[in-house]
Design goal:
This protein has 422 residues and is an alpha/beta fold. It has one domain. The chain is built from six helices and 19 strands. A ten-stranded mixed β-sheet has the order 2-1-5-7-9-11-13-15-17-19, covered by helices on one side. Strands 3-4-6-8-10-12-14-16-18 form a nine-stranded mixed β-sheet. A hairpin with a 2-residue loop joins strand 1 and strand 2 (91-93). The chain is globular, with a radius of gyration of 21 Å. The two termini are 38 Å apart.
């Protein structure tokens, strides 16, 4: 597949630095190429590039515009008390956004035009390591900039809802810049949904900047169409005593990969990056993490629980990197998966790169079927085999969800798992 770069007309063709950035993204993507079996970071979860053949990149096309009766024009509905933000077919709709004082949200094009976003874009990761982030940069236009100002502590979460229509088959490149200034505190939940039968490709890049003593809880829930493709990079820079708690919940879709690229830059920075995936049919779920301890007295924790049934495939790749001369730091990761079908597959690659001595690190991985003794015990107490399996599967996933510190989000996810567990 060859991308027709020349016929994709994007906003901002009169802004020199933006044009240069897009051209850099294009060159880097062409240099890196589409991931395949020989691409180390993608060898377990690459997918065919022909997926884009029937998709549209259409920032100005009428076919991608929402009609006047589209739900995106309605007041934002959230599953719990929260401030709402809505995307529809890859575009931010801000007509009903009502955020408290001290929180600024604006479309990415507005932040680009005003120039304030220039100091953040592509500063949290290395473009030459991420082909789809390079592609996202080449089509840089849609997305938002969200700033929680100095010392602001939000009393309820920000809920971002992404919706895709069935008849609009688009390639959506979304770039979000999230900034927490010194001492700020916020919870952000992203919920991705697609109408049944809709085919599309979401290519998401979240750049997160947590300044001194800030706290961000970031939860991502994928409830995409079963024929959707979703690739996301969450790149976070954490300053002194900043904390970042992330959780990714992946359900059934054709392909879903969430990659965390986190840099603990200064003393006291801490990251908790947990997740879960639950696959029943033939979807592919990939949770990849890269955490870099670049300062002493930093901490990272990871726990990912998975379930693969049918012909599905679960992938976990986790790397903890401890830089030279780092002291009094800890990094721990654990992946545990249930493999419930002879046709399902689990691939796991936990890694530690340690270049210092005065640190504590560990990693682990387990994969297997449901415990036969537990099933027998439950059946001996009058519980049917199907119910016993359902209870054990739910308990397995619930252990990861229980790590979520925001009670509203945790209860919502536990309810989703109850409904999805077969």
């Amino acid at each position: 597949m060859a991308i027709d770069w020349m016929n994709n007309h994007l906003w901002g063709d009169d802004i020199p630095w933006l044009i240069g950035l897009r051209e850099k993204g294009q060159r880097m993507f062409e240099q890196l190429g589409w991931p395949n079996a020989k691409t180390e970071a993608w060898k377990y979860s690459y997918f065919p590039q022909q997926i884009l053949d029937n998709l549209m990149v259409c920032p100005d096309s009428d076919s991608c515009q929402c009609h006047e009766n589209c739900h995106c024009h309605d007041k934002i509905k959230t599953p719990f008390a929260a401030y709402g933000i809505k995307f529809c077919n890859g575009r931010l709709h801000s007509e009903h956004v009502n955020l408290p004082e001290g929180v600024i949200v604006k479309p990415l094009v507005e932040a680009i035009y005003e120039g304030e976003v220039k100091k953040y874009i592509n500063k949290s990761f290395d473009l030459d390591k991420f082909p789809f982030a390079a592609l996202n940069t080449a089509f840089l236009e849609n997305g938002m900039m969200l700033i929680v100002e100095r010392g602001v502590k939000l009393s309820q979460p920000i809920f971002i809802h992404y919706q895709q229509h069935q008849k609009v088959h688009t390639f959506n490149n979304i770039r979000n810049i999230i900034v927490l200034e010194k001492g700020a505190s916020a919870t952000i939940t992203e919920h991705y949904e697609g109408e049944r039968g809709s085919s599309y490709f979401n290519n998401i890049v979240n750049e997160i900047y947590a300044h001194d003593e800030s706290q961000l809880r970031h939860y991502i829930v994928n409830n995409e169409s079963e024929t959707a493709y979703h690739v996301a990079l969450n790149a976070a820079d954490l300053r002194a005593n900043a904390s970042y708690e992330a959780f990714v919940m992946q359900g059934e879709c054709a392909f879903c990969r969430h990659e965390s690229y986190i840099r603990l830059l200064q003393k006291g920075a801490a990251a908790t990056v947990n997740g879960a995936y639950q696959l029943c049919n033939n979807g592919i779920s990939d949770i990849t993490t890269n955490i870099f301890h670049l300062a002493s007295n930093t901490d990272s924790q990871q726990l990912v629980k998975g379930v693969a049934d049918g012909r599905s495939k679960g992938v976990f790749q986790g790397k903890i990197h401890i830089a030279p001369n780092i002291k009094q730091s800890e990094g721990h990761q654990q992946h545990r998966a249930l493999l419930l079908s002879d046709n399902a597959e689990i691939d796991a690659k936990p890694e530690l790169e340690i270049f210092a001595e005065d640190v504590k690190c560990s990693h682990g991985n387990t994969c297997g079927d449901l415990d036969a003794e537990q099933l027998f015990y439950m059946q001996s107490r009058g519980i049917s085999l199907d119910d016993a399996k359902r209870i054990l599967i739910k308990a397995h996933v619930d252990e990861a969800v229980a790590t979520i510190s925001d009670t509203k989000v945790k209860n919502w996810l536990l309810n989703i798992i109850t409904k999805k567990t077969p």
